[in-house]
Amino acid sequence: MTTAAGPPGQPSTQAARRKIAVPTAAMIPRIGDSLSFLYLDMMRIIQDDTGLIAFPAQPAPNRRLRIPTAALSCLLLGPGTSITVPALATLARHGTTVVCTGTAAVRTYAGIVGPGQSSRWLEAQAAAWADPEQRLAVAARMYALRFGQDLPPGVTLAQMRGLEGQRMKATYKILATQHRVGRFKRTYDPDDWDSQDPVNLALSAANTCLYGIAHAAILALGCTPGLGFVHTGTTHAFVYDIADLYKAELTLPLAFSLNASENPEADARRAFRSKLRLFRLMPRIVRDIQNLLLPDQTPLAAADGDDTDLDDIQLVHLWDPDDGTVAGGTNYGYGQPWQT
């Protein structure tokens, strides 16, 4: 069998086809394009011939919901919800994070990561986490991002925590005054859930949604949620690190605005979801994670929709202690000096 050769200096047809088949970063849907989440409870989710369908656990006529998996960053499954394996497989193919929430907002997360991701950001996260100096530098950048300004040189991590605590107290006081709430104290007690005031209930619900969005962005970048820089001791430490960057701006004002709500948890979820596209939160989280981990390098793909030409960037490489990385998909068994 012969292969037609192209013009001088041009690859053959077979070589061109091989190049097209090689996975590149441009083939991966940008997580910034998925801007929303969906919360469901007391529902059953199945896969049919055209996509995912949700319908009440107790059958009811004309009550079916088509789930737009390609447009979702995460799917929150509340109490009484069941889902089939084919439906989970569809979510996995679209890279949608599944977040299971139990009674009284006690959370467990089940992350689904699609195949073919680059490990660049995972390696950057692990390298910074494993080096005490780099880890401290990332933590300092996180606090600076929360404060909205650079920190004075020489500030210790303990001092940063103290400054953040003072900042949160001041934020609580300002919001309580604006909404005439009176004195506010943050509480979270799953064992005595119903005794909490509407602001705390709304804040817990909104934070749950924020954790799901942050978790989805972390997984979409290929990072791991367990390697945190400020938080530690939990498999979701990095989720809490990233979510904390936005609470004072997003979930706290929302929760205080619902201080008179009769159903603050549901109202908080609906309000947060309706404003999510306005927040442009997903591309912002992706951009912030990239800048936190590699502040001096241009990101591989811009989070705000920059159409950088990535066609020549291959995702699969081989590690070499001397050369760094070498091309994958190549047989290195020929022409070696030790061959006989």
UniProtKB/TrEMBL annotation:
Its cofactor is Mg(2+); Mn(2+). It holds the Pfam family Cas_Cas1. CDD domains: Cas1_I-E. GO terms for molecular function: endonuclease activity. Keywords: Antiviral defense, DNA-binding, Endonuclease, Hydrolase, Magnesium, Manganese, Metal-binding, Nuclease. Its EC number is 3.1.-.-. Homodimer, forms a heterotetramer with a Cas2 homodimer. PANTHER family: CRISPR-ASSOCIATED ENDONUCLEASE CAS1, CRISPR-ASSOCIATED ENDONUCLEASE CAS1 1. Belongs to the CRISPR-associated endonuclease Cas1 family. This is CRISPR-associated endonuclease Cas1. It comes from Catenulispora yoronensis. The lineage of its organism: Bacteria, Bacillati, Actinomycetota, Actinomycetes, Catenulisporales. The gene is cas1e.
